[in-house]
Amino acid sequence: NKFGLLTGQIVAVDDPKLNSLALISLVVVVGLFIIWRPLGFASVDADVAAARGVPVRALSLVFMLLLGLAVAVSVQVVGALLVLSVLVTPAAAALRVSSSPIVVPVLSTAFAVVSLVGGILLALGSSVPISPYVTTISFLIYVVCRVTSTRRARTARNRRRILEAAA
Q1: Helix axes 103-124, 89-97, angle to 10 degrees
Q2: Count of CB atoms situated within 10 Å of the CB of 147
Q3: How deeply is 154 buried, as exposed, middle or buried, from its count of CB atoms within 10 A (0-12, 13-18, 19+)?
């Protein structure tokens, strides 16, 4: 139903749907594994990657297809409203803390899992659905990462000023 697409219904996923969800998830993971290095290269500097022979345009289309498949799989379980809280906000938080092409996806995944598991655990004892808890936890993780990056940048500026004054 339409409401289920907005909020997600994990209990509505039966065996045939579960098999297709697992297959699509496997396709996304394998696809990302295959294009990981050229995608990272094209993400850092698309012009240089294109000059070195990386098919940047095709890579972008493949990545968008894989992202679309991941969203289509996740909408059935978590709903369209939580896709932002599970896919985008953790990635934005991870980018605030690190710029490493290896650390950012790992942190993003960890932040998403913490948000989902925390939301589920908090919703167990209340009549409030999971969605507000997951969204709130995801947002709080983003705020903490933003404050951390701001403080880190301020500390780095202060150190530079002290070193410039000493020189």
Answers
A1: 130
A2: 11
A3: exposed
| Res 53: pLDDT | 92
pTM of the full structure: 0.67
Radius of gyration of the chain (CA): 20
Q: Which two tokens stand for residue 113?
A: 């899992």
Instruction: Give per-residue pLDDT as tens, 7-35.
Output: 666 666 677 778 888 899 999 999 999 99
Q: Does the structure show a pLDDT above 90 at 151?
A: yes
What are the Cα distances from residue 88, in Å, to 23, 34, 49, 139?
23, 22, 25, 11
CA-based nearest residue to 3, from 79, 56, 66, 58: 79
